[in-house]
């Protein structure tokens, strides 16, 4: 269960975009995770007049807002609140939206395992998260009742990894692996580390920004292994990288565990140039290397977050040359149906110039690199 005392530093820390945000409304900070509409109303995060409509949403999709995350919300539809507070539009399902948008179910050989690529596979030991994002591509599966693989099911999943020697990378996801107890997490990491063919273990998490106190020394110790261990932090806005969140990340980095960042391109959260720039810069300041910027997966009721691919490409193109290459993520889409991720660019190679090889610089000017003989 998530927790924390709700004491976090100012949400303005590390965010250029936060300086023009409206002043915070006086409201009590919660002492525990908010899990229903009633608690969201009493905490001043949603208007009481929306209670009935949002109760219907909450009955379908899980709600959880930990104290540390709730403390960052100034208004219900600001970039932080928009990610986690229920909204009436979630009950509107567009024709292209899918309950399993990236094909996890059909690619699961045993419960808790997803095998999409030849050399790596997902291990999902639980379907519980510290918070429930309103845009989540697994929103039909995750929740407080999503549960944990029992001992027998976990061993069957680990046995699958033991017998599939072509798989060299195990990716712990879910749910959020850091919602496990340190003891159980250590058991999984140790079991994977004892498999000679597993050379890399990756852990995907939202805990450092959602509930930083949970990533204590015991949790960080549970991730120590002689194998290559990488942690991928999901953060979508610079305000999420508070001093407490950065301190949680430091516990991993002090153990020589590199931390990568992944984000989802979201309307009203990070689709503005200043917001994306602030997010990428905040990650680099925290020694987090931006890794992926995901195009939104078409999960049910998520259309209000959708940003067209052309707009996403243009956004990144405008940032090229303004932010260091250390802060440059790969913009990717997970092809619906389980066909894997592919990069979306932007690209800078010019076409239509005959035999000349030319590229465009960040300002859009074309430059010839070389002349080549025409093919054929």
TrEMBL record:
<dbReference type="InterPro" id="IPR013785">
    <property type="entry name" value="Aldolase_TIM"/>
</dbReference>
<dbReference type="InterPro" id="IPR022447">
    <property type="entry name" value="Lys_aminomutase-rel"/>
</dbReference>
<keyword id="KW-0408">Iron</keyword>
<dbReference type="InterPro" id="IPR025895">
    <property type="entry name" value="LAM_C_dom"/>
</dbReference>
<keyword id="KW-0413">Isomerase</keyword>
<dbReference type="Pfam" id="PF04055">
    <property type="entry name" value="Radical_SAM"/>
</dbReference>
<feature type="domain" description="Radical SAM core">
    <location>
        <begin position="115"/>
        <end position="331"/>
    </location>
</feature>
<dbReference type="Pfam" id="PF12544">
    <property type="entry name" value="LAM_C"/>
</dbReference>
<keyword id="KW-0663">Pyridoxal phosphate</keyword>
<comment type="similarity">
    <text>Belongs to the radical SAM superfamily. KamA family.</text>
</comment>
<protein>
    <submittedName>
        <fullName>Lysine-2,3-aminomutase-like protein</fullName>
    </submittedName>
</protein>
<dbReference type="InterPro" id="IPR058240">
    <property type="entry name" value="rSAM_sf"/>
</dbReference>
<keyword id="KW-0411">Iron-sulfur</keyword>
<keyword id="KW-0949">S-adenosyl-L-methionine</keyword>
<feature type="region of interest" description="Disordered">
    <location>
        <begin position="1"/>
        <end position="35"/>
    </location>
</feature>
<feature type="compositionally biased region" description="Low complexity">
    <location>
        <begin position="7"/>
        <end position="32"/>
    </location>
</feature>
<dbReference type="InterPro" id="IPR003739">
    <property type="entry name" value="Lys_aminomutase/Glu_NH3_mut"/>
</dbReference>
<dbReference type="InterPro" id="IPR007197">
    <property type="entry name" value="rSAM"/>
</dbReference>
<keyword id="KW-0004">4Fe-4S</keyword>
<keyword id="KW-0479">Metal-binding</keyword>
